Amino acid sequence: MSVWERLEAFVLRAARAEAPTATERVVQGLLTLGSVSYGGLVRARNAGYNTGLLRTRRLGCRVVCVGNLTVGGTGKTPTVLALAAAATAAGLRVCIMLRGYGRQRSGVQVVSDGQRIQRDWRDAGDEAVLLAQRLRGVPVVVGENRVAAGRLIVERFGPQVIFLDDGFQHRRLHRDADLVLVDATDPFGGGRLLPRGRLREQMAGLRRAQAILLTRADQGRDTEGIRRRVECVAPGRPMGRGIFRPVALRELATGCGRRMPEIRGKRVLAVSGIANPDSFHQMVKQSGAVLVGSLVYHDHHAFTEEDRGRMGEAARLREAEWIVTTDKDAVRLEARLPEGCPVMAMEIALEIIEGAEALEAALGVPVKVCRG
After folding, report:
1. Which of 25, 45, 59, 181 lies in the 20 to 30 Å Cα band around 291?
2. Helix or strand or coil: residue 2?
3. CA separation (Å) from 239 to 63, 147, 178, 269, 367?
4. Which of 148, 107, 151 has its CA nearest to residue 125?
5. Residues 3-32: pLDDT tens digits?
6. Run of H or E including 322
7. What ranges do the domains of the chain cover?
8. Is the dihedral of CA 12, 297, 78, 370 positive or negative?
């Protein structure tokens, strides 16, 4: 773990501490001051767009955004995968646009033209490469400037629909519909704005959404309570419920696919560098595996030779038969595979279990998702 990752972990622990030490109380005070300042800036910026003082830019096609109110881990990427696949199956020309978080190269980049992947995860970000791998035939473009990225997409690919992954707070680009995800396992980010909590903006932002999807609805403790609170904040918005199901396994060394039933009874070491590792661990156990241990890294972690050795040693000590990782982590892990234990990537898919027709009507795109 790097110095910055250790510092971030300490700050997160201090922010969440219910019985803080003296040092943690100081950290909490500083974070609260930061939240007040941050909240003022967010309100001023939103007011600018709400009143028309700040202009939005339109593209020559339909734009559907999949976003959230909290930082990380709500399931945006598998949701975009599902929506883009459904729209493509319906005969629509589809493109995907995202910022490309964690990449080392700036500017607008074509990750895939729909036929060939042109950038690796270092240049494009792991999420963009994953989307390009899973959606052959669908162009994927990254760029901090979503307006510039969108104009390039329209000019080069002529899509009927652009799916914007993680852009709910990026209001400079006009969207025809916003789908906001609320994670049932941590719906409101501790109720505090960044950096004290995990909210990017106040919950009133839900009123800008055309539809809301409660994700990980099978893992939340009080989904009806979450629904009632959302309805109080944003009355009348259609709200669906979705779950993420593991649908396939892929052995990274060979690229060979495995059927999900093969994991049952296997002694598994889980390895992940994502925002919500607990949900992944639960999914591994629900698949019938025996979870003998886990290695958890920072979100978007770039795996090193040291990590490779650590994984191999942990698998040996725990007598693991497989190492299992997420499909997003697999993008960054394939060049650092440990020896002595097969590494499997678990592919997941979104399943809408309630409200698909209402979401489809609100978003203006197909959202019917086949069960895995």
Report:
1. 181
2. coil
3. 20, 28, 12, 36, 13
4. 107
5. 555 656 666 677 777 788 888 888 889 999
6. strand 322-326
7. 3-51, 62-243+351-363, 246-348
8. negative
